[in-house]
Amino acid sequence: MPLENPDLFVAFRRELHRFPEVSGQEFDTQRRIRDFVSRFSPVSITEVGKTGLLLQYGNDLSGPVTLIRADIDALPIQEANEFAHKSLREGVSHKCGHDGHAAILTRLASLLSEKPPVKGRVFLVFQPAEENGQGAEAVLHDPAFASIRPDLVFALHNLPGYEQGVIVCKPGDFTAAVKSLIVTFKGKVSHSAEPEKGLNPAYLMARFTLASKELENPDPNSADFALLTPIYSTLGEKSYGISAGYGEVHLTLRTRNNERMDALTKQLLTTLSNLCDGSGITTETAFTEAFFANQNHPDAFAQIKSSALRLGYEFIDKQEPFKWGEDFGLFTQTHKGAMFGIGAGENTPALHNDDYDFNDNLIDPAARLF
To answer: What PANTHER family would the database entry show (predicted)?
Structure first.
């Protein structure tokens, strides 16, 4: 099959879909990508971020350095679809389209092999562990990445609910700042007939959860947008003679930008401290799965828009950031760049839904835009 035939990349995307791996475990995915892209003659292929890959095209050290990134991990979701390329791994599936993002980058590799950059260098990053927010950090801190100083960094995400192939972007904040808070409440167990002899955190946990709701501003068009979503809660044991002495509340926080996230975090922790004051119950807090907001640089945004219009693609200037997080935001904290979206179809199932599947019609046009 000719390398330029789009069917080659559709077949590879579906192969990745059949064999998904969760964040940090993408060893088989890494091997499959390496075997597939080796035919496209990169200057080098280097392991990065433990389970990721870094490809180089062009060898001119005097010109600009461009980095283009795709994520490769799957989600712990049981697939509901029954098509021929359905996931063969129980409880794991590509429900965010990272198999498609990886296929786009392999198609781009083929285009770069046909027409390598004359000036400068292009690096393609197949990044692991986007879903848990650890992959971008692993890549950026990898010694293999240390010598690369990109002038521009780019990434994309497919967008169910938007017309197929439309390009969606905006300067400034593009995706939300997101992080999750874990609060542990430590009291004292007692007989459930004598709760006054213990310290049951149940009501304090309830007050804290309700108080977090009062800090919300769910309007995505507002600069003060803040979403606090209860994710998980646990209390005591299933032993009905014991009044609980331990509990946990887990929340996910979302804001339009990093500054708002800092302010919301301080406000929430102050609320928790005030509620606990005098209760005798101690709390501990920890944050996990933090995603910086993607900060699209105006110059990078302008390049995306002009390239899309030159190719005849429909372009939407988005007015407010998306509410989901993306760990490419860590790249844009340290490097000039931008992320954009490409419409996956107005009737496509939503991201992270068990019946979602990537739209293969996006592979070639997205690669050509890059």
So the answer is: CLAN MH, FAMILY M20, PEPTIDASE T-LIKE METALLOPEPTIDASE, PEPTIDASE M20 FAMILY MEMBER
